[in-house]
Fold each of these.
Amino acid sequence: MVAIGGGTGLPVVLTGLKRYLGSRLDSLTAVVTVADEGGSSGRLRAEYDVLPPGDFRNCLVALAEVEPLMGQLFQYRFGGSGTLAGHNFGNLFLTALTHVTGDFLQAIRVSSKILAVRGTILPSTLDNVRLGAECSDGSVVMGEPEIAKTGKSIKRVFLEPAKCRPLPETLEAISQADLVVLSPGSLYTSLLPNLLVPGIADALRRSAASKIYVANLMTEPGETDGYTLSEHVAALIEHTGGGVIDSVLVNARSAGERTLARYAETGAYPVALDLERVSAWGVSVQQADLLGTEEKARHHAQKVGRALLGLLSKNGKS
């Protein structure tokens, strides 16, 4: 099983699958974006010439089998106003370990052993790539944090260098998968950067796996303003040439009115489910209650994991 993404969406999928996989957890591979340039990860990337560690840290914690205290330690964020302010301990650990081992991938492997991680965590590429966006007015914005700040609709995103190299282990994991999950989260800045790495989309097209996109619950201000479900799917197809998903898993239960009102104040709204247009792309839609119990419009990890494995079983690949 392979889950692709970044940000906060990929750890939700990993946590959900972990809950139900049991002895099969070792067969799970997370493929993580390396385009992040914001926050602690961006600072460490710029100052120490490492791949951004934050999304990898979150995946390590999601799949860890150690005492909760170790997970809390990796997620600990330094406060105050000193040089460490805003950094997570796990980010600093991965950065230091990269320099000690001389290899970011080896740092992930060693960290996985320390945290007793079940499953495998891989970058989509080990190349130092930057994410850019061409806006609808023809202007170009470079850098993942700047894309959502433009206030302009996105026509397409791209990687520099475009000819970055996919990690062979990532391509191999996709080729052997029975299930590939495209995780929810930032469409243009967390999910698509993985699929733009040459070879990744081709590997997905060749794969006989069930390829499921877990759709976002809400639009994202500055990135997918006003997007319907079909527009999310269209962006995936237009950037990859199609064939990377065969079904979409969508939430079938609405968040409460007060919750939606709070999100509306920030410019985020429920993703409209224009199912007929999605079907026109040749993509089936599967609906389930995926909503968490908090006063936030977020995916519930266990519900997502249960729904995904249910679809896998339904397709005869359990």
Amino acid sequence: MSRRFPPLVVLLLASLSFLAACRSGEFAGRMSAAEAAARADTVTGLDVGPSVADTMSMAAYSAPEPVVPRATSSRPARRLSAEADSIAQTLVFFVNGQSWFTAAARRKRLVVDIGRVDTRIRTTADRRAYEEAVHAMSPLHTGDRLRIDGPWGRTDATVSGFSDVNGRIVALLELPSFVDSLARVADDALVAVATRADSAMPPVVDSCVRDSVSATLAARLAVVSDSLQQRLRSDTLRLPDRLRHSVWVHASHAVGCFGPARVLLMVTMASSGYDYVREVAVLLDDTGRVTPLRINALRFKTHEILSAFDADGDGVDDIAIKGRGDRVGGTSVLRLDPARRRLDFLTQGFAWEGM
């Protein structure tokens, strides 16, 4: 016995069948084109994926998310030896698009920090594998041209190879002989900034005198430093005993050409473990006038001034600092913004961690 449907249901079913037939015909047409493309690709035997038109239509429904560069390097595209591939898993580089790098004197030569190595390079075989992996993965490559801004001024350099220093991956440089001489006699306080350069430029000599100040300004500097230290110590009276008894105070300064100012002074007070930190930075001009600065650098808890130099070529000196925190430290360069009266983070390198 056949079942009879109401006329309205019959009409609805007929409409749906008609639409389905239209869609199936359209789909069949598309499939035939896809089959023809597949037959054309059987010569190469490759899966070429969707056509350009299909890709565009899919993109209209879901646009891909932008790819954010990561600091950790992925496995290199070129094939490495087994030893180099093992070393490669322990290398962490800066982002490939980074333009600013920290350079410093290490082992009597100026090198550029480009990342971290999480293993020890003990043998000659380890050294060969390490260099092979770094050459394949480094954001800087042998032959790359860099512009170096340091206490001597500005000069060009070329990446000549790679090495490691205290757990850091460093790029070796071909430099003018006078810069090599500075690095051989300097300690870790010699810091510079390296930036990518497309072409060679004539060297720029820095004429700023940073070795001395007048006796009057030196006396004024001592008075201001003592005053700031006393002010910071007075703020510890309300601290718990465990913090107040572990507080230490340190003052550091650099002589330079900070616009109209000649000295940048930084006074730091912190407790062991860095649970309590206060830091003050000021500029002093030739008359002894004091201008306070804001420190806009959050990577480290405290900062000790190492040297002053024009790191960005704007004619105003910046400072290299040794930063410290809870079981962490490193070298940073802070840029002086005289108009805003603040120190901004510029670049960082040669970080270390400890227990």
Amino acid sequence: ALPAAARGGLSLLTPAYRAAAQARNWAYDRDLLSASALPRPAISVGNLTVGGTGKTPIVAWLCAELTRAGRTPAILMRGYKARPGEKGDEQRLLEQLLGDSAVVEADPDRARAAERALARRPAIDLFVLDDGFQHRRVRRDLDIVLIDATRPFGFGRLLPRGLLREPISSLGRASAIIITRRDLASPQDLAGIRATVARHTAAPVFECSFEAGAMTDARGNVVADLSERPVLAVCGIGNPDAFFQSLRRRGASVVAELAFGDHQTYTRQDVDRIAQQARRGAAIPVTTQKDWVKLEAIWPAQREIVIAAQRVDFAAGDDAALLQLVSSRIRDE
């Protein structure tokens, strides 16, 4: 009875949320609210829903490809759940993945972040807005929207009852759609997602999956095989089940799962909890790179742990077609 009452209470708040989201979009669509242009071309990577759709690996992949093509990108992000004066997990992970090839600036004011990025590296010729679809205060040359195939439209409900940040009709603003985690959905489900998308936008649709990539220990040594040892899968991300499944597809013998909250700020008590559960199953903990950037400082050197990288795997030809679309939209004037 209590969960039903809670759902009913959240449903009462949904109309107010919908009205606010629609009014805001209406004002931007009619230039009643103004959007400022950044001093360089801008690409937004965002989504319609809360939770993990795979923005961080897509942003990292995109920036790596742009760098290989001779561009000098900078990533502008909000810095969600970052403590004052500290970098958030996504910023630290992107800096770790991309090294010196891309400047990463976190600030709720993306225009201010752009100024700081250019001060650090005047050669920047392109901005990538991480989680920028709803950040309409900044104009963009390309809007890429991610849809998670395992929960594509937030159960069809807006916040706070569902997961949708804005109505599905907002896909009409998208320049391109990427359906992520395609490998975890049936062909019928993928066809249904494509049909829903087509009702709201003529933007091209691409598909990808996220595979467990290289495995390393805490010292950076490659771990070749996890099929012979029991594994405790540990993470604090938006879609933990997808990570657990990716480990199993990689051949890991996952005997237990431990999911913390999204963007978990790990404590020593959490480390003890992980260690105790691993001992009970005689298992080795395996976690994500995003979790490791927060665990590394407090993880005891004598305790084993494996960090799983994530690799973006596009459907045949989709990566090249997407990059061609990006290139066509951000040509220097």
Amino acid sequence: MESIQAKAEAVEVLAGARVLIVEDDFLIAIDLETILAKAGAKVCGPCRTVKEALAAIDGVGAAVLDIRLGEQTVEPVARQLDERGVPFLFYTGQIETDPIRRQWPHHKILAKPARPQCIVMAVADLLK
């Protein structure tokens, strides 16, 4: 029963929130978009490159970032979000080994693949 209430609260928090998705894998990006949109978020993106993400960053309330975008890293996006005070989490397979992740040790990390409920709850936690 507690998890049903927690999920309902998460959906309430996400309702109308602008969430930026930065993910270069098409299928994962679409999956994230679907999960967060069904939970009520207004999804920005998904962005597949740093350039796209930086262009979409204005007005977002939270972000879900993959660390590696092809040969690029998400570092410029994370830096901009951090400077603007926008909370973000990493959704990645690069759990502990990536130096980009170590630059933001206090930001949550979700290991790919994560259950939809875990993604919704983690993004909602960013917005609380």
